[in-house]
Amino acid sequence: AQSVSQHNHHVILSEAASLELGCNYSYGGTVNLFWYVQYPGQHLQLLLKYFSGDPLVKGIKGFEAEFIKSKFSFNLRKPSVQWSDTAEYFCAVNALGTTDSWGKLQFGAGTQVVVTP
Amino acid sequence: GAVVSQHPSRVICKSGTSVKIECRSLDFQATTMFWYRQFPKQSLMLMATSNEGSKATYEQGVEKDKFLINHASLTLSTLTVTSAHPEDSSFYICSASRLAGGLDTQYFGPGTRLTVL
């Protein structure tokens, strides 16, 4: 079965610091990749996605992610965080090519990010 | 665009009763809708996938007679928790996708907090 790993469960950093959240998946075939964010008290929102093409994708609010196929990774980055980036971040993978997983999102466990003023 | 709503946002019920949760895509037609369950401090677990006009497909371990899913229109799916018990208490989240099979981006609702006494 496919799995999605997020390396950090909890990250605390100061405003203006750089952020990088790791995401690895186990499926060897074609994938669609997503990062979702859940702000306190709000629902999951799409930050960015990768379906094909340029492996460096830019999302909303200054976030970007890089798909490295050889490493089965899709790490999320932001060069300078703000207090408003405090949220939980979820990596999700849609493993294509198998009827069992077609269209289904496999989520990582999430990373709670706290940005201090 | 791509707004998904859920109703109710919170529900408290007695053990043995049934609870219906609605999921609506407000500004797009959702060919496929998904139902997830999220336990505290954990990631989202897919419960079932429903395509409009078809029977839902349930994930392994999810009782289809207990969690009844109806997707009668392109903008509405319902999840009915039948004969609810305290162990069914959880946060239920739906998502909607424009394309069949969910290959497009999934847009998430705000979730429904179910508490069974």
Provide an overview of this structure.
The complex is a heterodimer of chains A (117) and B (117). Chain A is mainly β and 117 residues long. Chain A contains no helices and twelve strands. Chain A has strands at 4-6, 10-14, 19-21, 23-25, 31-38, 45-50, 56-58, 64-68, 73-78, 87-95, 105-107, 111-116. In chain A, strands 2, 5, 6, 10, 11 and 12 form a six-stranded mixed beta sheet that branches. In chain A, strands 3-9-8-7 form a four-stranded antiparallel beta sheet, with no helix packed on it. In chain A, strands 1-4 form a two-stranded antiparallel ribbon. The model of chain A has no long low-confidence stretch (mean pLDDT 91). Chain B has 117 residues and is mostly beta strands. Helices cover 0% and strands 51% of the residues of chain B. Chain B has strands at residues 4-7, 10-13, 19-25, 32-38, 44-51, 57-58, 67-73, 76-81, 90-97, 107-108, 112-116. In chain B, the strands form two sheets. In chain B, strands 2, 4, 5, 6, 9, 10 and 11 form a seven-stranded mixed beta sheet that branches. In chain B, strands 1-3-8-7 form a four-stranded antiparallel beta sheet, with no helix packed on it. Chain B is globular, with a radius of gyration of 13 Å. The model of chain B has no long low-confidence stretch (mean pLDDT 91). Classes of the chains: A mainly beta (117), B mainly beta (117). Chains A and B meet through strand 5 and strand 6 of A and strand 5, strand 9 and strand 10 of B.
